[in-house]
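User: Can you help me understand a structure? I only have the sequence.
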Amino acid sequence: MHVHQVARWAARLGGPALDLEDTVHDVFAVAWRRLSTFRGESSLSTWLFGITEKVVRHRRRKERWWRWLSGSATNATAGHVAADGLDPLRVVEQHQAAREVYRVLDRLSEDDRRILILFELDELAAHEVAALLGIKAANARLRRHRARTRFLHIYQQEFPAFRANITRQRCENVSR
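Assistant: Let's start by predicting it. Here is the structure, written out as tokens:
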């Protein structure tokens, strides 16, 4: 039950370049080691989300260092978006959209990135995001609004040829 949820969170938080199987394994290895420290003050899902977020953040940071040390920091790629029976043109479009969206997401703060991924890519409701992050639903909606504004600003800087109303469509094209 929780494996699929953790895998979905990790895939969204880490992007298409993340080694999903290893990440999920690491999350449950950490959870197993820290099971005795789980006090039950939050739900198990909230606790697992926190672990998932930290493991993914660590992997992303490690990947950035690896790219920088190998001299390819300027050639950041978003990885491969798996085809699910779509025609080749659609697969290429999704791949490009994922690269663009994650390129912008990588420039945002971790808080903005997390909020947008949970709301927009994972399509969670405000009360679900609030429960995962330990905040009120109204606060989650406010953070989403502010993060969207910052996302659009960066997107327009990165891709000036596209208009702001296209940005939402491109975000919706990103699938995993």
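Now, to help you interpret it: DSSP finds eight helices and no strands in the chain. Helices lie at 2-14, 20-33, 44-69, 88-105, 110-121, 126-133, 137-158, 164-173. Let me know which part you'd like to focus on.
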